[in-house]
């Protein structure tokens, strides 16, 4: 019997589509870490109350709760349900995926609530456990219904293979999180990775004496207003050019590179504006738009326009250098006193736990980006 080449191609297409989504699995891992961090933040004051960890399950319903808490708990676990179903696809689907996803949500939520009994500033709640589980179930159903369209016949999946290199899945997750890393307030625009103040606090507690590592490295040098703006311009320019150049490393020649670069930058600025309006006041939504920030964005785009014509391997190495310089600069630069004054109006309120997760993402994002660019298996080439 003679085989038909056309029919073989048709039959091979579904087989090629039914592959595990590395993007979904990476995103699920990142979301699990964010849930754990947000649930146990600030990781201090651990002590046992002498009660079994599962006591909260059999306690009465909380006397004080708000609709905001219920909605937040449900919405917070819906992405977990969706991503878990997508991560299980195509090996486990439909009812099996929903059941396993719900089991994960129940175990995770139960473990987080039980662990919160050891934190004096957190309250374990059976209502939180129920609403988190409901959110997971809702997400699992949504994921099960949409997995076929999203993971097999999605237009986005087609564009992903057309525009991005085959090895870009992990990098896509990391750089898609860059706008989210701008939520936590920072001294300088795009100034992620400012870890010296946290290390200084830890050393101060350990040594029982005030320690300022940044001041020691700067030899106590203070900056003028113009110098603060210059520092912000440099930090912003290094980050803008480094991040966007790293994105270009993952794009094929046929991709609309300029549009995708501007979309990522615009998303980061939009998230920054919205977060500033929510965390402070709507009147301060554009407080981050200082002369230093404006100059840094323009300088970063000008630098990017010249570096965009480098070969892919050279772009990757240059992006690594720019992000390392940005990490060093943001840790050496002193905290802007005008930014510190703005922080005094920051009412964390209901966003306290979310702010912990946002800070975690802001601190670790540069490390994740450098890991992707430096790892041998993640060095992508445009074909």
UniProtKB/TrEMBL annotation:
Q: Which terms are listed as keywords in the entry?
A: Membrane, Transmembrane, Transmembrane helix
Mind telling me which residue stretches traverse the membrane in this protein?
26-44, 64-88, 95-112, 132-151, 228-251, 258-280, 286-310, 322-340, 352-374
Which segments constitute the VanZ-like domain?
Answer: 29-144
Q: Which InterPro entries does the UniProt entry name for this protein?
A: VanZ-like
Protein name (Swiss-Prot/TrEMBL): VanZ-like domain-containing protein
Q: What is the lineage of its organism?
A: Bacteria, Pseudomonadati, Pseudomonadota, Betaproteobacteria, Burkholderiales
